[in-house]
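dude i think i finally got it to work??
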Amino acid sequence: MNNKKGRLFVVTGPSGVGKGTILTKFFENNKNDVCYSVSMTTRKPRPVELNGVHYFFVDEDTFKKAIENDEFLEWANYSGNYYGTNKNFVLEKLNNGINVILEIETNGAKKVMEKFPDCISIFFAPPSLEELEHRLRGRNTEDEESIKKRLEVVKSELMMIDKYKYSIINDEVENALNKLQAVYDFETGNKNE
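look at this
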């Protein structure tokens, strides 16, 4: 089989920027040499989310036991919920030559970038704060206080954009998807025949 190690891609950006939508389309086009790392969270699932596909949804006690057992590559508390990336899953895939994409919040991304300085870090940004607010409100999944909290977090996240190898503005899903594909192809040496 393949002796080449997989590449680690760290994808982050503000809540509501469209990371999930873009990555869903990306994975439809890239099925063979890349996998999505499913994170664990204490957040309640949204109506369209499935356990084990979008996240592993667990209670706080289960998450804290995983922290104690050193099961995470990174973990963070974001907007009152815990999120974490399973260390063994990621390392096993990389060692087997499979590229891994982590879709994580910015604090987690920073931790992974410190542990894996050669990872490919990608920050998705909104075209504007006003557009991001519109998207967050359009989801109808959060109350006014949560939206205001998220927008305050976004301002500090955007100030860190220069810490990432790539930044992609999600002005339109197809444009952002094409930019992500170009980054992936460049970093993995894939050529579209």
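Residues 8-185 form a domain with the Rossmann fold fold (CATH 3.40.50.300).
im so relieved honestly
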